[in-house]
Amino acid sequence: MTSDTTSRTTRQGGDGDPSSPHLDRALGNRHIQLIAIGGAIGTGLFMGSGKTISVAGPSVLLVYLIIGFMLYFVMRAMGELLLSRREYRNFADFTGDLLGPWAAYFTGWTYWFCWVVTAVADVIVIASVYVRHLVPVLPAWATPVIALVVIVALIGLNLPTVRAFGETEFWFAMVKIVAILALIVVGLVLVLTSFDSGHGAASFAHLWDQGGFFGNGFTGFVAAFQIATFAFVGIELVGTTAAETKDPEHNLPRAIRSIPVRILLFYIGSLVILMSVMPWTVYDADNSPFIQVFDAAGLPAAAAIVNLVVLTSAMSSANSGIYSTSRMVFGLATQKDAPALFAKVSRRRVPQNALYLTGVMLLASVVLLAFGLGESAAFSVVTTVSSLCFMFVWTMILLSYLAYRRRRPQEHAASSFAMPGGRAMVGVVLAFFLFLLWAFTGDPDTLAGMLATPVWFVVIAVGYVLLRRRPEHVAARAAFREQVAREQGEADAWNAAPQAPSAGPGADR
C-alpha cells in the first residue's frame, strides 16, 4: 500500500495519526470470539424460532442453513477488506474509501439507525415482558422505570473502557451458549429414551413424518425467510471492533472462520432437537420453543429459566447496539459526517459523547412504555425495517469488495484472508438478497414495513444533500475521484505484468 492512496476516511482518526482521537485496542481473542457468537445468536433464535417452525415446518433447517451460508461470505468479504488496511476501523470506513464519501455516510448512519431501532425494541421487551414474567407483581408504573434503569446500566457498562463492554458481552454470550447446549443435551436424552411428551414419543422421525420435510409447502418455506433473516442481524458486529481489537490479523479471521460451525451447532443443532422432541405442528408461534421443550421435559422452573436466558439475550443485543452505534457515530464524526463533538474520546479512549447520544435515543423506549406501547408493536417494526436496513449494510460491504477487487487486485493477491469464491460468490449473495426482497412482499405486514423503510433513506439523503455542499466534502469527493483514477491505473499496470499471476495466496485473477 502506498501512502498516497489512503482516503479521507482513513486519514482522519486512524491508528497512524497520534494527534487525532483514536480508540484503544483492548479487546482480546476471547472477547472477539464471544462477541462474534453473541452477534450470531440473537433473541430471534430464542423467541422467533417458534414462528419460523410453525410457518415452514422442518424445512426451517434449510432456511437457516441457506441464510447462514450466504452471510458467511458477507463476513469473509468484510474480513478481507478490514485486514487489507490497518487504518480501517469498521466497514463504514472501507465503504467510504472504496465507493466514495457518500457510501460512508449512508452506511454509517443506516447501521446506526438499525441498532438504535433494535435496541429500543430490546429495552421495551426487557421491561414489559421478560422482567414482568420474572417479577409479575410489579405495578404498571414500574415498567418505564425499569426501562430507564436498563438504559443507565448499559451506558454505565460501556463508559469505563472498551474492555468493560468486552467482558459484559463475553458473559452474556456464555449464558446463551450454556442455554443452547443445555437444550441440546436434554433434548438428546429425551430422544434417545423415546420420551413421551403427550404428543408422541420423541424421535428424529418427526423431521419428516408430519407432512414431510416441507410440511407447509413451498409457500411456508419462502415465508420463513422473512422471519429468519432477523435472527441473523448483528452477525457483522465483529466488524465494528476492528479498531479496538488486539492483533486483528489473527483474531478477526479466527472469529469469522468459526461462524459456520456456530450456525450448525447453535441454529441447526437446536432446531433439530426442538422438532425431534415434539412434532413441529405442536409449537406455538407466539411462545419460545425452548420454554415448551423444557416444560415438556417436566422441569418446573422452565419458564423462569428460559425467560432469564432470553432476558440476557435481549440485554446482550441492546449492549451490542449501544457499543456499535457509538463507534459508528464516532467514525462518522471523524469524517465530518456527524457533529465534531461526537469525535471526542474520554481519557480511557471511549467515545463518551457518542454513547450519550445513543442513551438519549434509547429514552424513546421509556416514552413508548409510558404511553402503553407493548412489545408486539415494537417487534413488528424491528423484524421488517431493521432486517431491510441490515441487508442494505451487507450489500454495501459486498459492493465495496467488488470495487476493491477491481482497483486493488495486488492487495487481494497478497491477502492472507482472501474471500473464497471471489466475485462470483458476491453475485450469488446479491441475487439471494433480491430473493429476500421478493420474499418480504409475500406477507402484508412485512410488505408494509418494506414500503415504509425508504422513508429513512429519504431522510438521510436530504441530510447528505445539505452536507455535500460543504467545502471539505467537495474536496473529499475530488480527492476520491483522483484516488480512483490513480488506483485503476496501478491495477491496470499490475494486471498487465507477467509476474502478477504468481502473487500471494489470494491470487485468483
UniProtKB/TrEMBL annotation:
Protein localization: Cell membrane
Topology with respect to the bilayer: Multi-pass membrane protein
Cited Gene3D superfamilies: Amino acid/polyamine transporter I
Biased composition (Polar residues): 1-12
InterPro entries: AA-permease/SLC12A_dom
Entry keyword Cell membrane: yes
Limits of the Amino acid permease/ SLC12A domain: 31-470
Protein known as: Amino acid permease
Keywords from the named record: Amino-acid transport, Cell membrane, Membrane, Transmembrane, Transmembrane helix, Transport
Domain of life of the organism encoding this protein: Bacteria
Source organism of this protein record: Brachybacterium rhamnosum
Transmembrane spans: 32-49, 55-75, 109-131, 137-159, 171-193, 213-238, 259-278, 298-318, 354-373, 379-404, 424-441, 447-467
Compositional bias per record (Low complexity), positions renumbered to this chain: 496-509
Record region (Disordered): 1-20, 490-509
Keyword Transmembrane: yes
